[in-house]
Amino acid sequence: MGSLIAARLAVAGVEVTLFGRPSPHLAAIQHAGLRLEERDTTHRQVPLRVATDPAAAATATHSLVLVKAWATRDALRPLRCYLPPDSLVLTLQNGLGNREAIQDELPAHDIVAGVTSQAALRPRPGAVRHTGDGPTLIGRGSAVVDDRPRQVAAILTGAGIQTAAVADIDHWIWRKLAVNAAINGPTALTGRANGAVADDPRLRAAAGVLAGEVAAVARALRFDLARIEETVVDVARTSALNRSSMLQDLDAGRRTEVAAIYDAVIEAGAQGGIDTPALRLMAALIHAREQPGEADKDGMA
């Protein structure tokens, strides 16, 4: 996702730097640019500046965080001394706790959170394939939408990432969390694409139970996830050919976002006296499937 949005911004004429750990992906982009593969099978080579030195962040006015949730703190810690204090930091990551982790690492910065329906995969180093399109929503979680989130939304929209600034972003974070919990775990454990959640009655029923438990926890926090089971099926259908990020992580032997998507909801439920047995079972199975000690070596910020 970081590569996709960076490429979109660069094509739109926005000065952008893709920052991350040294990796074959960054090396390939530095050598020949990023190959952007579109959903209609066309492609283009996008010249893109990359950096592994955190000093590159010294002139940043906006930062977009798209590393895996578990890598957030480690990715941002080296940037603390370089990011200008008046810069805005936007997270479009999955799960709960990302905004809080960023605020802990960058306490003086302006933090905005969001969700996106865009989807992408990396078929090989130096390439990104756009696999899903949809709206992106961002906000502060306050009743007022001010100019800075609107400006960021306009920049992203101008780059072809349709984005709106909203007042109720926490509602949308919980809504996407329910969809992620309903689709990611079942597809990851069965090895099937997202469409199976809509087409297979057994997976559809399992997804409904998982989404229902997330909705119950959200309801206790005064977020109403109305018709969430229908939303899960709709998302599964519109992304039918996609392989969920959790499935891709397990297939590659990488660490998953089980903590941000499942464990965080389980903990929130426990604090509110709400039992989440299906989520606990799913989390346990995914933890058991993970390969201990493995980590994504080339996350992007």
Write the layout of secondary structure elements.
Layout: H1 2-11, E1 17-19, H2 24-32, E2 34-37, E3 43-46, E4 49-51, E5 62-65, H3 72-76, E6 88-91, H4 98-105, E7 110-116, E8 119-121, E9 127-132, E10 136-139, H5 147-158, E11 163-165, H6 169-190, H7 195-199, H8 201-220, H9 228-238, H10 245-251, H11 258-271, H12 277-289
Helix pairs in contact: 6-8, 6-9, 6-10, 6-12, 8-9, 8-11, 11-12
**CATH homologous superfamily name of the largest domain?**
NAD(P)-binding Rossmann-like Domain
Largest sheet: 5 strands, mixed
Query: What is the CATH third-level topology name of the largest domain?
Result: Rossmann fold
Shape field: globular
Q: Span between N and C termini? A: 10 Å
Oligomer designation: single chain
What proportion of the residues form beta strands (DSSP E)?
5-15%
**Mean pLDDT over all positions:** 94
Q: Using the coordinates above, name the CATH class of the largest domain.
A: Alpha Beta
CATH architecture of the largest domain: 3-Layer(aba) Sandwich
Poorly predicted spans = 293-301
Number of separate structural domains: 2
Q: What is the number of beta strands?
A: 11
Radius of gyration: 19 Å
Sequence of strands across the biggest β-sheet: 5-6-7-10-11
